[in-house]
Amino acid sequence: MPKRPKNQEVDDAIEALDSVRRDWLRRPGVTAVDVGFKIKNEELTDTVALRVHVGRKIPASELAKSEVFNETGKTPKKVGGFPVDVIEATYGPSNAPTVLDYDDVAALEEVSRTTALDPLIGGISCGNPRITAGTLGAIVFNRTTCKPMILSNWHVLAGASAAAVGENILQPGQYDGGSQAVAQLTKMVLDSRMDAAVATLNGARGHSQEILGLGTISGIDTPTLGMNVIKSGRTTAITEGVVDGVSMSVSINYGDPGVVAFSNQIHIVPRPPWPSVDYEVSKGGDSGSVWMNQSNNRAIGLHFAGETDPSPTAENAICSPMGPIATELNFSFLPVLCRPPLFDICDRYPWICEGVFRWPRLPIPDPGPFGPRGPLGDLGGLLGLLGGLLGSQTTAGGCNCDHGATGVDSEQLAQLVAAYLAQQS
User: Could you give the dihedral angle defined by the CA atoms of residues 217, 218, 222 and 223, in that order, rounded to the nearest 10 degrees?
Assistant: First the structure.
């Protein structure tokens, strides 16, 4: 396995790539560029390089001098002090379900990923009725309404330029015989940053934060070169990989919406030994899977594309960083704390809440044992903190949530409680 480079080295390499990125992407035959580990003898090395992905490698003797990315001989061409590596690879969305030509997945799993499941969990088949099938990446929670949602790709939950909010989402996808709607399309984004969408559950089935075979997602992490990652998808089930490229620029043809030029994407390849033989890190139908840092189960990216070359040595996956997706689609992987239903009255009759339910504004003439000097002072302060927090949040259901308030997930709540207790000690 290659060693993880220092962050500064990667940042410097990205800066060097930025100086030539536009020029390289305009050249004929170039399918992508990124910063990643240099490949030598079909194996990843520890050397950080500027990498040019091409549809087909052509001998330097057949190219004009201006078209040669790296020189022949012992010393490769360098940009900003970093070597240039040329990789043969083509890419496309992972949206056409396929059947694996080996039985390992079926033998290892008791739960079928392509049947109707209750509760809904991550790593199983789902999709808009207009598409074949993709992967339900995870159950996430809307930070404003606190309602549970399905996270997947735009091309899984929407699938066409004509897609509209409110469309039904099936589980399993129609390719797998699905007919029951379990969610409605809520928000979708297909641009240079991401191919992502969420759909709010309709209550037809239960839900769980579980990712089939991997446990639950504990938060979000920043992907880095050399990070060991893992995902659970509809087609290839649980697969392991390593982040071998970052700051990737790649164009993907989506058909109906046309070609989308992505930037700042993540490139993943199988673990050693290299080249991989009979190992699929992803295939059609895995779109929407969540890639996680294997060391802590934190989400690092949303899978949406992979190689189009059937050769085992070309095996790879592409995902969008999870941080920007969670911000854009306004969700948390952890349950979001909202006000109890009782406080729906605050939306209907705000004048009552101003005097009664906005706890931080309510004077307490005699706090008794919960006062700062009482035996339960710490608990009283903590309850006041939670009361104020709950009193300022939106309701779990039935409220008018257009006033811009947001919920607080359990990780944020734990941080607030820890900070309060530290202040009192």
Answer: -40
Helix (H) or strand (E) run with residue 22 in it: helix 21-26
pLDDT in tens, 233-256: 999 999 999 999 999 999 999 998
Strands (E) located in 223-275: 228-233, 237-253, 259-269
What does the block give as tokens for 1? Answer: 């396995």
What is the chain's length? 425
217, 326 Cβ separation under 8 angstroms: no
pTM: 0.78
CATH 2.40.10.10 placement within the chain: 89-334
Nearest alpha carbon to residue 29 among 289, 248, 251, 240: 251
Q: Measured between alpha carbons, how far is 314 from 39 in angstroms, rounded to an integer?
A: 12
Tokens 């995870």 belong to which residue? 138
Instruction: Please give the Cα distance from 205 to 118 (Å, whole number).
Output: 6
Under the phi-then-psi rule, with left for phi > 0, alpha for psi from -120 to 50, and beta for the rest, what region is 135?
A: beta
Q: Distance between CA atoms of 240 and 248, rounded to whole angstroms?
A: 20
Bridging pattern class, strands 148-152 and 138-142? antiparallel
Asked if 409 and 141 touch (Cβ cutoff 8 Å), the reply is yes
Rg (CA), the chain: 25
Q: State yes or no: cis peptide before 28, omega within 30 of 0.
A: no
Q: How far apart are CA 151 and CA 406, in angstroms?
A: 19
Strands 120-122 and 207-211: parallel
CA separation (Å) from 154 to 142, 162, 242, 254? 17, 12, 25, 11
pLDDT in tens, 15-68: 999 999 999 999 888 999 999 999 988 889 999 999 999 988 766 656 555 556
pLDDT under 70 in the chain at which residues?
58-76, 95-110, 275-278, 310-313, 339-425
Phi then psi for 115, rounded to 5 degrees? Answer: -115, 170
Q: Identity (one letter) of the amino acid at 111?
A: V
The arrangement of secondary structure in 89-334, i.e. its CATH architecture, is Beta Barrel (2.40)
Those residues with Cβ within 8 angstroms of residue 215's Cβ, 6 or more apart along the chain or in another chain: 297
Residue type, 41: N
3-state SS assignment for residue 399: coil
